[in-house]
Amino acid sequence: MSNKNMICDLETGICGEAGDEEMEIIDFNQPTKKVDLYYVTDPICSHCWAIEPTLRRFKEQYGHYFNFHTVMGGLLEKWHDGPIDPANGIYKPADVAGHWREVGDHTRMPIDGSLMIDNPVQSSFPPSRVFKIIQKQHGDEKAFEYLRRAREALFAFNENIGENAVMIAIINKMDLDGEAIVKEAHEKSGHNLLMEDFALSRKLGARGFPTIIMVDEDNKGVKIVGGRPFEYYVSGLAQALDDTPEPKKQPSLSELLKEEKLLFAKEIEVMYDVEPPKLSNYVEEHLTNGTYEEKELLGEKYFVNLS
């Protein structure tokens, strides 16, 4: 028998000589997370809702390079007689409706907005405090899930997420104790946790939402204000790392929908670089009949997991 090294190629299925390659040193370790990413946001921030497709893809493909921290910024404590956001012409709750619809139409992340005329959210602090209590008790991922569910309820389905009953219902659907969490959020502990985030937001120099700050081990990095294209965040990460990051492959659409439970058309298009006219074919190719339901809201398709 020959003493030559033999190998069966996994891709071709052909067996033969292994060739003259020397011993190869490999490393299966994940890259050390040398960057802290701070996402300063608020539950009622329409532009934060608009960047969800881009932010999700960025986390999925490059999250192995950074530690992700969500920071509540405190967009609206309460309505008063003076201007709330004069740059966007917002002086009273009804002014928000038109601005939100404009953001939704422009970004194709659906926003109804009529709630702010009929039954406006009086403060973003209550849902922000709930976020902090969930984060404290159940961790960052569960808290981020709550933030997503709250934004869906507010922007897409026109529910007042400042009301106790709405917050409790959202939390209960996450298999958590809504009444207990909302009760604690109204207590001093909820207030104190939120004040800690506000202090961190000020320290980070965040003056608007969304703001994403990526900081390296030497406390140097980049600050990105407002919604930006996907490549912009990748470039920012490269600057913070002082290196070119390597992306992971996106999860399959079936995996993503099962995890997220609901995805709007824009979210699928951004995640997989799908052109809008080709979305229906892409979904049919990558999802099994009976595992999802296709619906429409404000002229935009969305998909709900059934599996």
Gist?
Helices cover 45% and strands 15% of the residues. It has 307 residues and is an alpha+beta fold.
Descriptors:
alpha+beta, Glutaredoxin, three-stranded antiparallel β-sheet, 13 helices, globular
Structure description:
The chain folds into 2 domains: 35-204, Glutaredoxin (3-Layer(aba) Sandwich), CATH 3.40.30; 253-305. The radius of gyration is 23 Å and the shape is globular. The model has no long low-confidence stretch (mean pLDDT 91). β1 and β2 (15-17) form a beta hairpin. The protein starts with 5 loop residues before the first strand and ends with a strand. It has helices spanning 46-50, 52-62, 93-107, 115-118, 125-138, 140-156, 164-173, 178-185, 188-204, 230-241, 253-260, 265-272, 279-286; strands at residues 6-8, 15-17, 35-41, 66-72, 211-215, 221-225, 262-264, 292-297, 300-305. α5 (125-138) crosses α8. It is an alpha+beta fold and 307 residues long.
What's the β-strand tally? Answer: 9
- Poorly predicted ranges (pLDDT <50, ≥5 residues)? none
Fourth CATH level, the homologous superfamily of the largest domain = Glutaredoxin
Number of domains: 2
* CA(first)-CA(last) distance: 54 Å
CATH architecture of the largest domain: 3-Layer(aba) Sandwich
What's the total helix number? 13
Radius of gyration: 23 Å
CATH topology of the largest domain: Glutaredoxin
Q: Could you spell the SSE succession in H and E letters? A: EEEHHEHHHHHHHEEHHEHHEE
What about the largest sheet? 4 strands, mixed
Task: For the largest sheet, list the strands in their spatial order.
Answer: 4-3-5-6
